[in-house]
Write a sequence for this structure.
């Protein structure tokens, strides 16, 4: 049960997260990290193919990038109602069917984050104002909603693939 | 009917610039233009242009791409402040692609010189680049090659439509923006003794070039940028990848593209040269001033093969002059006056080769 003694660290946390966004958030909360990778096929001397992921810092238009966000519960208590909101990065297109995450519902938006739904529920209007189903490359946001809490010390990850326009 | 209208670039000289001058040379052959006006009959149409897949230019080189995820959560029943994380920026590299479009048939006369045929060069890369140009004149599958070593490639300057030798002088495409297109003329001499219907192919190859440093593209206005090479991934400088497809004289992924146009032998060529023969001022001198009488000459030459039907020379006089009645002669034969200060001289059907001279006088207002 929350009492007034917990209000102080919570207020401190509010101050800390008011700072500009950094790759790693403050220690006294869930640790969130976001990375970008490319995937290449590696063939060993026996002809066996494996997929290897490397960090990517430079890429040409047309390249596919894997964006992964990892979160770790470093608080002493279970974290619940976890929702991750991720706008599809500018100058990229979401790759159909590539969003991943465990124990969560994945929804998309095609209208700038105003409404979210499953793929077949998303609509866009064409030039004449007529509605049609949104194409995956037209998605503007992805949202993961966790159905179960994240226990202390546990971590999980979500992510998706996008093509650089 | 072939109505020959002298276009604005072929105007009689600006007389106001010469007002008050007393040392005008009266040698009849002297031109008062920097270059004689030439007008040529060419029929240009587009043959079966095979559509080529050219990828859109893409995100501009140097753009930084980041992904930001925002996590919201609760501890028990208390909502907690959101936490965001942003990935390390991905910088977009240079993807080089270009398209040279040809497929144009330009009709020319055998023995004619400086015959221009138009290509376009499009920059399909995601950043500005220069494009070097080279002409291939010895191609097979045709009846003739343009005169050896006579061909040049010149970029349309944009000042006047069609090829103008005095204006379109750049020999490489300079600082062409992503998705932009330049018009390039290949200009060659045509051999003599060819038959009507003979064709000669000529090719244009464009090569993407430019200077890059760690920060990105380095503009070099007026100077052709350096030769490009594909870089290994993740070098310190901007990486460059070639994404072009093969053309007629080049291979895929070589930063080049090429295409062919066709010269077709057919028809006659008409060229027109306008000169001032003399100026007589009211005092009997040679000053260009109000009241001076200027004698003009238009020399019409028909070369090549065939006949130009119903050739009419139609030429409005400069605004500051008035036609002198009874002064219009075609090959020394008096013609009816110019109406409303516009010449209209009918030469009828003229078989090549032929030469005609039109003279008339006009008074400066």
């Amino acid at each position: 049960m929350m009492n007034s003694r917990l209000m102080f660290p919570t207020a401190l946390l509010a101050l800390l997260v008011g700072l500009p966004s950094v790759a790693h958030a403050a220690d006294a909360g869930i640790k969130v990290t976001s990375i970008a990778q490319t995937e290449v096929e590696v063939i060993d001397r026996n002809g066996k193919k494996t997929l290897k992921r490397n960090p990517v810092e430079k890429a040409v238009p047309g390249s596919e990038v894997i964006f992964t966000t990892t979160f770790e519960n470093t608080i002493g208590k279970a974290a619940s109602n976890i929702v991750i909101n991720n706008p599809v990065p500018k100058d990229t297109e979401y790759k159909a069917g590539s969003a991943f995450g465990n124990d969560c519902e994945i929804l998309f938006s095609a209208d700038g984050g105003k409404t979210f739904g499953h793929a077949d529920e998303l609509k866009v209007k064409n030039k004449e104002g007529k509605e049609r189903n949104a194409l995956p490359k037209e998605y503007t946001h992805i949202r993961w909603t966790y159905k179960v809490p994240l226990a202390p010390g546990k971590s999980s990850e979500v992510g998706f693939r996008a093509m650089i326009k | 009917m072939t109505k020959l209208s002298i276009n604005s670039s072929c105007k009689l000289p600006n007389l106001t610039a010469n007002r008050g001058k007393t040392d005008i040379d009266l040698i009849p052959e002297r031109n008062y233009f920097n270059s004689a006006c030439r007008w040529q009959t060419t029929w240009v149409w587009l043959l079966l242009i095979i559509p080529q897949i050219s990828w859109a230019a893409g995100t501009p080189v140097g753009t930084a791409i980041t992904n930001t995820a925002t996590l919201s959560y609760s501890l028990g029943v208390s909502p907690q402040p959101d936490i965001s994380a942003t990935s390390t920026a991905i910088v977009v590299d240079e993807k080089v692609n270009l398209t040279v479009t040809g497929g144009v048939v330009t009709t020319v006369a055998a023995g004619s010189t400086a015959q221009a045929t138009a290509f376009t060069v499009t920059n399909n890369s995601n950043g500005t680049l220069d494009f070097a140009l080279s002409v291939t004149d010895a191609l097979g599958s045709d009846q003739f090659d343009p005169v050896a070593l006579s061909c040049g490639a010149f970029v349309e300057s944009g000042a006047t439509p069609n090829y103008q030798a005095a204006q379109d002088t750049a020999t490489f495409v300079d600082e062409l923006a992503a998705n932009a297109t330049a018009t390039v003329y290949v200009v060659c001499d045509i051999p003599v003794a060819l038959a009507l219907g003979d064709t000669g192919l000529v090719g244009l190859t464009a090569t993407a070039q430019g200077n890059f440093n760690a920060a990105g593209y380095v503009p070099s206005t007026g100077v052709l940028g350096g030769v490009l090479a594909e870089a290994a991934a993740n070098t310190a400088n901007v990486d460059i990848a070639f994404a072009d497809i093969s053309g007629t004289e080049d291979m895929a992924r070589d930063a080049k593209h090429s295409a062919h146009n066709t010269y077709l032998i057919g028809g006659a060529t008409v060229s027109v040269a306008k000169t001032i023969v003399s100026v007589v001022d009211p005092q009997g001198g040679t000053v260009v001033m109000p009241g001076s009488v200027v004698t003009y000459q238009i020399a019409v030459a028909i070369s090549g093969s065939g006949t130009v039907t119903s050739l009419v020379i139609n030429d409005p006089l400069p605004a500051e002059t008035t036609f002198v009645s009874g002064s219009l002669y075609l090959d020394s034969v008096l013609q009816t006056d110019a109406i409303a200060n516009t010449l209209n001289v009918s030469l009828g059907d003229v078989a090549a080769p032929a030469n005609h001279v039109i003279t008339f006088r006009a008074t400066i207002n």
User: Anything to note?
Assistant: Chain B has no helices and 28 strands.
